Amino acid sequence: MKIGPVRLDNNLILAPLAGITNLPFRLLAKEAGCGLVYSEMISSNGLIHHSRRTEKLMDSVPREKPLSVQLFGASPHIMAEAAGIVESSGASILDINFGCSVKKIIKTGAGAALMRTPDIAEAVIKAVRGAVKIPLSIKIRSGWDRSGRQAFELARIAEDCGVDAIAVHPRTATQGFGGVADWSLIAAIKKRVSIPVMGNGDIVTCRDAVRMLETTGCDGVMIGRAAIGNPMIFSQVLSCMKNEPEQAIDLERRFALIHRFLDASIQYFGEDHACKMMRSRLGWFVKGLPLAKKFRESIKQVSSRDQAVDLIEQYREALINHSGV
Ligand SMILES: Cc1cc2nc3c(=O)[nH]c(=O)nc-3n(C[C@H](O)[C@H](O)[C@H](O)COP(=O)(O)O)c2cc1C
Q1: Ligand 1 atom 1 nearest Cα
Q2: Same domain for 216 and 278?
Q3: pTM of the predicted protein model
Q4: What's the CA-to-centroid distance between 169 and ligand 1, angstroms?
Q5: What pLDDT, in 10s, does the model give residues 158-211?
Q6: Same domain (yes/no): 22, 169
């Protein structure tokens, strides 16, 4: 799969997830074989005002490339200026967020609110397209409240304005994350445009990813929530695509990943900040495992790497004893 001139190793994509897809997390997905990683959504306003916190969201390292950096905002000139900053940061691809349905963002006219205002959406796309040379993609929902119509219109506008790819999460803005994603809309958009379409929404297992590719004809699949607890899902999907038997994530692999995430987070954020983050984040990786609740409780006050490592190892041993391995 290619987005503009950027060729991806494969067509599996880590979705942008605010508060989650930071550099250490993206590296886990990349190690698992993910073909394209997305940053968290980044405020165009924050970027043009040189907010250090906002700029940090663009941090990257060569081994995670290609990286798509996602911007949100509703002002064409601010988005254009911010896009220039993203391009200068070395991002491989720039993505515009047309899907965020969080009130705070909608109120400013950005995210999914732009699907209600196609004129402004078009002005934003044109301004950004004119400001950068790197490939440009957009990520949309099915619409504001009437499934389909706004997505078709925005897809057409995007293609006409020189956008290189479209990611489609086929839920309306008012749906939030409720109900089910209407994959038929991904197929319908794929039929209407000639640029690559990334399908997104409700991929829970590796079989779902293969099914989305087969049933919608989309060019790539974008995985969000299922990757949070299991970034290894990308390697599972890759095996599944080769018709290999389903890869189980055994305890050793899972715990190796937890340790790598801890160390990468400490390296990136510093021990103090990373340990505070680990108090909730390590819990993601043990969802569904026996004694997970007890482990989550135990890490709530973690404040040093040594302590975190001890607690992780104690949990690993408890699991081995529990299952009698
Ligand atoms: C915690 C969380 C944060 C998200 N942040 C973003 C974001 O920053 N930008 C964006 O376009 N979508 C964001 N999304 C939406 C996801 O990218 C994705 O479209 C959605 O979760 C559906 O895919 P999934 O079923 O694979 O999770 C977020 C979703 C969640 C659950």
Answers
A1: 17
A2: no
A3: 0.97
A4: 9
A5: 999 999 999 999 999 999 999 999 999 999 999 999 999 999 999 999 999 999
A6: yes
